[in-house]
Amino acid sequence: MSKVNSMTGFGFGTYNFEIAEEKFANVHLEIKTVNSRYLDIQIRLPNEYSELEPKIRKIIGDKISRGRISIFSKRDVRIASKGANLNQEEITKYLNKCTKIAKDTNSYSEDFQSKLLLRLMSSSTFISSESSVEEISDKEKKIFLDEFTKTFKQVEQSREQEGLAAINSVKEYAQELRVFSKKLESFKINPEQYRKRIEELIEPIIKDIKVDESRLASEIAVIAEKRDICEELNRLESHLTSLDKAIEGGGVLGRKLEFTCQELNREFNTIGSKANDAEVQQIALSAKLSIDKIREQSANIE
């Protein structure tokens, strides 16, 4: 059986690398995929990586044909403490303000300013950082795309694992349908024998009544034809064969399964309505429940 993918998957990663001397980028990447009838790619990247969006869409489009894919990435830049640019003007203003408050509240001491200054120096609040969008290097672009590919492989693996579980369930329900179909074979009727049976049943009733023999024969033939489920069973066998081939063929088959379920449901509906037998109707009802389970699984298969 060939590989089948689910439309549900998840992958994430966080990585750090140096982008300049004493300057590091911390990037978080998250990819999530869920069910959708069509391919829907939603991307939220840092402004620095926005030009990489077409390449990312191509990577996804080459691997996925159906589902909603949500991509989120966040990029933070950190400056190493050794080379940190302290905002001296802001520190001075803050220090003077705190000193005034301390004196006004009689909480000032000789070492007040030195202790406060040490605390401020260790805080990231007054470390200068670049808030504007910077132009990134080709090296960083390559690193991001490489990390995206690694994270996307996580998604592919989870989709494959869930797809295997889903198609195994479909295979199990398909076997149930085979069993139901085989049971229905015993309820097939021979139209000619059915006509003779009806004639035998009504003969005592009409023996003393003048009837139109040709009209009676015509009505009996219509009744026999309405009760005959041979054609439905033949079409049922054809659809079940198509279902087996689709399962074994793998690949992108979610919509194939949905279509086959519609056809199978139609045949079992017809059999249940044509057969004047409670057991046949119960078999048809059980089969439709199995079809619904296949349809549920196919909604999550690519």
Textual characterization of the structure:
- By secondary structure, the protein is an alpha+beta fold.
- The protein has three domains: 9-80 and 139-159, Ribosomal Protein S5, domain 2 (2-Layer Sandwich); 86-121; 161-298, Butyryl-CoA Dehydrogenase, subunit A, domain 3.
- The protein is built from nine helices and four strands; from the N terminus they run E-E-E-H-E-H-H-H-H-H-H-H-H.
- The protein has helices at 53-63, 88-104, 112-121, 138-185, 191-206, 213-227, 230-249, 254-274, 278-298, and strands at 9-20, 23-34, 39-44, 67-79.
- The chain starts with 8 loop residues before the first strand and ends with a helix.
- The mean pLDDT is 84.
Distance between the termini: 16 Å
> Do you know the CATH architecture of the largest domain?
Up-down Bundle
- Helix/strand class: alpha+beta
Can you give the mean pLDDT?
84
Secondary-structure element order, N to C: EEEHEHHHHHHHH
Low-pLDDT parts are none
What percent strand? 5-15%
**Number of folding domains?**
3
Strand order of the largest sheet: 1-2-4-3
Q: Major sheet, described briefly?
A: 4 strands, mixed
* Helix fraction bin: 55-70%
